[in-house]
Design goal:
mainly alpha, globular, 44% helix
């Protein structure tokens, strides 16, 4: 005997998805990777905090690449030496902060 299955109707969720602003994504990558506060960001440079060592640097790069769906060039990864320098590097990838 052939059974007919009735497809259930699905309705769009009433949950509204909001996009996180780029600057917030950028800040969160630093805050979450290095366990710092937003007050520390503006003047932050490589090795200013213990967590921003070579391993922390690659963790930050991975977080940024995931957040912005980009693949940074090796030279850009090496040159990424501060919070401010990083903003300039991301502009090369058409990411406005």
């Amino acid at each position: 005997m052939l059974k007919l299955l009735r497809k259930s109707k699905t309705y769009p969720s009433k949950t509204r998805i909001t996009q996180v602003p780029n600057e917030e994504k950028y800040d969160n990558a630093f805050i979450n990777t290095f366990d710092i506060t937003s007050d520390q960001l503006k003047s932050l440079k490589y090795q200013d905090v213990e967590a921003w060592d070579s391993v922390g640097h690659m963790s930050l790069i991975a977080a940024l690449e995931d957040s912005f769906d980009v693949m940074l060039d090796t030279d850009d990864i090496i040159d990424f030496s501060s919070y401010d320098v990083g903003k300039g590097i991301l502009r090369k990838y058409d990411i406005e902060l």
